[in-house]
Specification:
The structure is a single chain. This protein has a domain of about 40 residues. The protein has two helices and no strands.
Length: about 60
Amino acid sequence: MGRGRQKAKDAKIARELKYTPHGADLRELERELIHSESVRPAAAKVEVEEDPDPYARWADAED
């Protein structure tokens, strides 16, 4: 698809988004967010012990 056709298509989509009324159902959004939080399990905390010298495993003992 040529650049002119793509630009016209993008302009058409932008006009539709700008001038089309979008009825936001805030109650539905609230229900969806509350439901997704109750379904999602809590993330387990994993403690990672940091190595004081992360490059030590590549160091030669003969240095």
